[in-house]
Amino acid sequence: MEATNRLARFRKDSDPSIIVRFTSKKVTHRILSSRRSLKGTGTCIVCSEDLTKVNLDRLRNIKDLEETERAWTKRGTGTIYALNSGGKILKFDPNHSIDEFSAMLKTKTNRLHIQGPFSAQTTSSAQ
To answer: How is the chain split into domains, by residue range?
Structure first.
């Protein structure tokens, strides 16, 4: 760890939050990629990336979709992934709208058929 900062107590009956900055992006990515293993440990630990407002809004909107089982970002790039009810992991393409991504989640496919002036085109958003 490079630095830690203790924040003011949010509530009087809880411990104060701590912000941690790691020495390298490699360590940060390793911690963030293993955050799922902390679930169910009984310890209240929140690991999150510092996302831009646009990517944070996109992530929240994707998490709110009925078709989304889980959504997350990876490797500090702002790339958003979602797991649909069919068990398929899809990568969100920022060139598509949330509604188009929702349609992809519903069809349980990684291919999007675009309607409009270029209706014959098919684009792939999962790699």
So the answer is: 3-38, 53-124
